[in-house]
User: Which sequence fits this backbone?
C-alpha cells in the first residue's frame, strides 16, 4: 500500500527552539549501559518494561544510538525499546577489520541473545535498514515486524558513495565543529538548523582514539567491490516473511522515493509510506509523524 503521511503536527520542535539530546530524554525513564555481545562491549540506550515485546533500533553508517532520542518515550509505552551503537560504531567495540553486512547481522543476533529474547521487532535507518533486511532474510525466526527507514543496500550509486566517504572521513580525520556539522546537515532536509547538540554528541564519538581507523572500516561498504557482494536484490527481499514497513522521505539524499517504492515492491505484502519535508533522519526531523506511523505499524493497526 502506498500513501503520503501528513507533515509536522502541533508540538514539533521549531527551528527557533533550542534542541538538545537531554531535552529529548528529559522525563523519560531510560538507562544507558553496556552489554557483552559475544565478546563485543556494546553500548545501548533502553526504555520500557523489559517484559514488553522487544524493539531494536539501528542507526546508519557512522552513527550512534542518539539517532533515536526523540522516539524512546513514545515507543517505551508499548515495547522494551533498545537503541544500540552498532558494531564498530559509537562507543561499541571496534573489531579492527572492514565491516560487511554479515558482521553487523551476527552482532544484532548476538544482541538479541544477550537481552534474552528469541524474537524482536527490528527498525533500521540507512545502514541499519540494510542490516535489518538481511537479518530478516537470514533469520526469519528472530524477527517479528520489520521497518526499513530510508534503507541502504539496494543499489550502488557512485556519487552517493563518494559523498558518504568524503564527508565521513573528513569528520573522522579532523572532527572539528565544521566537518562534523557538515556530515550531520547532509542527513537533514532543513539546512537552516545547526543541530548543535547532535553535532556535539557525534564530535565526542569521532574524537575517540583510533576512530579514523574505525571509520575506514565502516566505509568498507562504500567500496564498489565490497558493496556488490553485500547488496540485496529480489531473492533476498522476496524471502522476507516478516510484516514490513518501508518508510521513505521526500528529500532523502541517498535515493529518491522511487527506490523506496522499488524495495517495497520486492517484499511480499510490504507497506510503503512517504514522509514529506524530511531527509535521511525522519525519526529525528519529524518525530511526531514518524512515531505515529511507526507505532501504528508495529502495533498492527490497519493502514
Assistant:
Amino acid at each position: 500500500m502506498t500513501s503520503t503521511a501528513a507533515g509536522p503536527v502541533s508540538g514539533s520542535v521549531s527551528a527557533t527552539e533550542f534542541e538538545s539530546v537531554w531535552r529529548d530524554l528529559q522525563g523519560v525513564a531510560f538507562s544507558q549501559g553496556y552489554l557483552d555481545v559475544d565478546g563485543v562491549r556494546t553500548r545501548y540506550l533502553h526504555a520500557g518494561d523489559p517484559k514488553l515485546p522487544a524493539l531494536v533500533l539501528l542507526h546508519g553508517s557512522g552513527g550512534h544510538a542518539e539517532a533515536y532520542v526523540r522516539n524512546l518515550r513514545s515507543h517505551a509505552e508499548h515495547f522494551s525499546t533498545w537503541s544500540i551503537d552498532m558494531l564498530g560504531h559509537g562507543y561499541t567495540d571496534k573489531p579492527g577489520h572492514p565491516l560487511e553486512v554479515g558482521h553487523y547481522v551476527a552482532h544484532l543476533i548476538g544482541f538479541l541473545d544477550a537481552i534474552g529474547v528469541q524474537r524482536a521487532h527490528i527498525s533500521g535507518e540507512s545502514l541499519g535498514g540494510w542490516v535489518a533486511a538481511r537479518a530478516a532474510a537470514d533469520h526469519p525466526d528472530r524477527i517479528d515486524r520489520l521497518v526499513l527507514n530510508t534503507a541502504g543496500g539496494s543499489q550502488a550509486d557512485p556519487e552517493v558513495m563518494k559523498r558518504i566517504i568524503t564527508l565521513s572521513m573528513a569528520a573522522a580525520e579532523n572532527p572539528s565543529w565544521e566537518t562534523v556539522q557538515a556530515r550531520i546537515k547532509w542527513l537533514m532536509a532543513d539546512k537552516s538548523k545547526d543541530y548543535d547538540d547532535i553535532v556535539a554528541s557525534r564530535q565526542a564519538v569521532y574524537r575517540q582514539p583510533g576512530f579514523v581507523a574505525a571509520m575506514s572500516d565502516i566505509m568498507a561498504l562504500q567500496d564498489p567491490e565490497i558493496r556488490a557482494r553485500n547488496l540485496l536484490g529480489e531473492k533476498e527481499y522476496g524471502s522476507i516473511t516478516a510484516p514490513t514497513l518501508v518508510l521513505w522521505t521526500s528529500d532523502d539524499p541517498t535515493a529518491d522515493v522511487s527506490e523506496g517504492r522499488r524495495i517495497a515492491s520486492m517484499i511480499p505484502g510490504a507497506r510503503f509510506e512517504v514522509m514529506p519535508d524530511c531527509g535521511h533522519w525522519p525519526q529525528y526531523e519529524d518525530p511526531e509523524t514518524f512515531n505515529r506511523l511507526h507505532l501504528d505499524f508495529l502495533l498492527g493497526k490497519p493502514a
Q: What stands out?
A: The CA atoms of residues 130 and 137 lie 11 Å apart.
